[in-house]
Amino acid sequence: xxxxxVIIHIKYMCSCAIARWKNAVHVYxxxxxxxxxxxxxxxxxxxxFDAVLVTTSLATRxxxxxxxxxxxxxxxxxxxxxxxxxNFHDLRSRDPAVHVNTVGTxxxxxxxxxxRSLRDAINKTSNGSSQFLHLNPNKLFSSTEGRIIxxxxxxxxYSQIASMDAAICKMS
Length: 172
Prior knowledge:
Elements lengths: L5 E5 L4 H6 L4 E5 L21 E4 L2 H8 L2 H6 L4 E4 L21 E5 L5 H15 L4 E5 L1 H4 L10 H12 L3 E2 L5
Parallel strand pairs: 1-2, 2-3, 3-4, 5-6, 5-7
């Protein structure tokens, strides 16, 4: 049975994931929710996280010095990821009511068994009108061995990901 090593909780805590996979590393990414840490108290379920991602150096400092985190005595890592949720390309979510044509993944990993299962499920649920797409950076950016290192490559990657109606992520 597959068991996740890491679970990233985006915006909200999924208490069922914390209860089911106690040995996984649980990371909280509040994205644009800023008031959560002001209400953080000893015993708060948010103190069960192993790590928190924040977007500013000030938030990093404030959280590392937060009285409830210090009093809880847990080793909660705080990581500063500046502008990791910026949308400089002004990409927008698609209308969820529109038919999904392409479901895909953007990864160097090739898991044929998983991809075969996904293709079968997508074909079955869409009556053959949708497709699975594996975008492999090793092939798409072969000149740099799959590494995305230039602004042009970053723009290309955004366009590639935006070409999918839905994306599937798998932790390696």
